[in-house]
Design brief:
The chain is of the alpha/beta class and 375 residues long. The chain has 2 domains: 2-172 and 359-374, Rossmann fold; 180-356, Rossmann fold, CATH 3.40.50. Helices cover 41% and strands 17% of the residues. It contains 16 helices and 13 strands. α10 (237-242) links the parallel β9 and β10 (252-255).
Amino acid sequence: MKISVLCFDLSINAFGRAWLLAKALSTFYDVEIIGASRRGGTWAPIGHAEIPVKEFAWGRYPNFSRIKKNILDAIDGDIILASKLMPTSFGIGLQKKYSSGKPLILDIDDWELGFFYHAGFWGRMGRFMNFSNPNGLPYVWRMEGLVRHADAITVSNRFLQKKFGGALLPHCRDTKIFDPIKFNSGQIKEEIGLKGKKVVMFLGTPRPHKGLDDLLVAFKKIDDRNLNLVIIGTENQHEFLKKVDQSIRHRVMVLPQTPFDKLPEFLSVADIIAIPQRRTSDSIGQMPAKLYDAMAMAKPIVATRISDIPEVLDDCGYLVNPNEPTQLADAIKYILNHPDEAYAKGQSARERCQQNYDITNLQLGLRELVEKVSA
């Protein structure tokens, strides 16, 4: 049996979830990933995917009508899995479902409208008039009304499950690959110029709702010359560093997007991983995948009380309120001053990840749905 996984944009981090689903499915089925690429190529951290990828150019309407036809013609799987509630994945998947009779599974891992709604009333009004963008607000808004037409739904968190129903399939990680005992953190610290230093790490695209600005404010409040902040995932390191307060700039290291197969190595140098999500319309329907990376690597985690983070951590980390840099600073100082407790929480986090969020859980959950819709 062959499954076609549709990704709405191969060139951004949306490819990460599509690739994760495809990799989990590839244990049992023949799998391909299909989608348009706005920037060309696939998302850098997974530049060499083991899964076959069919890439198409991106364009605005009316040109996208021709591109869409090419994508529809390329979908030859027995089952379609649309990654994200977007017109260029779910919308195309629906069209193929009705023209071919093939079952369609919809995976929702973010509340897409939430990314539009943070712009305020006039921002939303402007975006609602953006009819040339195939993934513009008017089309994304329409997608929510068509969810019921999918043959099965999966979601990444409880906010989305309450809103759309479906089976809860959180982000998962292969804990055999994300395994701290495979790495010499001291040696890797020395190689990147952080020998003998303590490291607080932030991983991910530095968008406002990710809370990196709060982390920088918190870091400034911690007077510890031995503590460094490492930020992984920015596209322009030099431009980003210019925005960092000069008083702490010498203790901040900015690294580019890291290939996924190298990520565990870089994570191994972290003494603390910070996930300071803010409470916004962007974040309430989102679960940061980096939380599962940190858990798998047995790292002490300080995170905010957003979405399912408290449930997923379940006392295996440290929680603070969102948008509270002082609380974040106090938590980081507490972790540094209680290394034995922090180590124990990290080990508990890994054990919890192995039990509940290992990729085998995703494999079995997806297989059950595939067998159901193909029966």
